């Protein structure tokens, strides 16, 4: 892993001034897929970071400075293939970037139901906060039970997302994703697929999970993975599901 901090490149994690903002993890972050000198969908990520900052009262995020830092970090990139770029921005205007190798994951996801409720109108709903404890706890809960991630449910008993990903599901021949009113993160990959009319927004009650025909998860780093299991139910992926996976990934890798 390599880092950018205060216009310097480091191979070890740089020391941040232990300000109150850093100690409280009071800030926002973005994770972005890169390949060599290219960052996928960067403008969309910066826009989401800016909007999340405004929601938290962080009124100024220096996007041009962040873009300059990204260019410098990517120019120092010696990794071949894909990498994960993370922007960490704190409310006292400190920020740093990290870059580490990654791979697109072809393994199917196995989901369990998370027992703790996500409140759809909570301030933190829909924000990638540097205090990522809630999402990380949801993933740990799943992994301790031999699943890969947890499916999060809101106070209305609606499916929201998983700990690390947006959730999509198929009914007959149409793919859907929970609406923004559910409290889900405005995922970048989700946003692209809605714009391309590949998926539509439609809420799903937990009690109706048994009626869906297939499911997948979306994220900026893994792009798209089919879901193999939800609790005790296993999905048999049709040829159409596999083709959807292939064509969607190709589309996303060609998106700017």
Overview of this protein structure:
With about 260 residues, this protein is an alpha+beta fold. It has two domains: about 1-100, D-amino Acid Aminotransferase, Chain A, domain 1, CATH 3.30.470.10; about 110-255, D-amino Acid Aminotransferase, subunit A, domain 2 (D-amino Acid Aminotransferase, Chain A, domain 2, Alpha-Beta Barrel), CATH 3.20.10. Helix content is about 25%, strand content about 30%. The protein is built from six helices and 15 strands. It has helices at about 20-25, 40-55, 65-75, 135-145, 190-195, 240-255, and strands at about 1-5, 10, 25-35, 40, 80-90, 95-100, 110-115, 150-155, 160, 165-170, 175, 200, 215-220, 225-230, 235. The strands form two sheets. Strands 7, 8, 9, 10, 11, 12, 13, 14 and 15 form a nine-stranded mixed β-sheet that branches. Strands 2-1-6-5-3-4 form a six-stranded antiparallel β-sheet. Helix 5 (about 190-195) links the parallel strand 11 (about 175) and strand 12 (about 200). The mean pLDDT is about 95.
């Amino acid at each position: 892993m390599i880092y950018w901090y205060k216009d310097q490149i480091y191979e070890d994690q740089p020391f941040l001034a232990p300000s109150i903002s850093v100690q409280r993890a009071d800030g926002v972050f973005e994770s972005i897929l890169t390949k060599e000198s290219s960052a996928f969908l960067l403008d969309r990520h910066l826009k989401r970071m800016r909007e999340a900052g405004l929601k938290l009262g962080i009124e100024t995020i220096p996007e041009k400075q962040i873009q300059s830092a990204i260019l410098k970090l990517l120019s120092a990139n010696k990794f071949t293939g894909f990498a994960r770029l993370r922007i960490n921005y704190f409310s006292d205007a400190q920020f740093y970037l990290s870059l580490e190798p990654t791979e697109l994951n072809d393994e199917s996801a196995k989901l369990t139901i998370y027992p703790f409720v996500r409140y759809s109108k909570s301030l933190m709903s829909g924000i990638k906060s540097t205090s990522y404890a809630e999402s990380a706890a949801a993933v740990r809960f799943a992994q301790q039970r031999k699943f890969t991630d947890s499916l999060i449910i809101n106070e209305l008993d609606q499916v929201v997302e998983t700990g690390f990903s947006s959730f999509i599901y198929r009914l007959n021949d149409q793919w859907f994703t929970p609406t923004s009113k559910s409290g889900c993160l405005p995922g970048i990959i989700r946003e692209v697929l809605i714009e391309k009319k590949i998926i539509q927004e439609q809420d799903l009650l937990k009690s109706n999970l048994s009626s869906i025909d297939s499911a997948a998860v979306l994220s900026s780093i893994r792009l798209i993975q089919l879901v193999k299991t939800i609790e005790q139910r296993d999905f048999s992926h049709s040829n159409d599901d596999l083709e959807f996976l292939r064509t969607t990934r190709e589309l996303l890798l060609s998106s700017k």
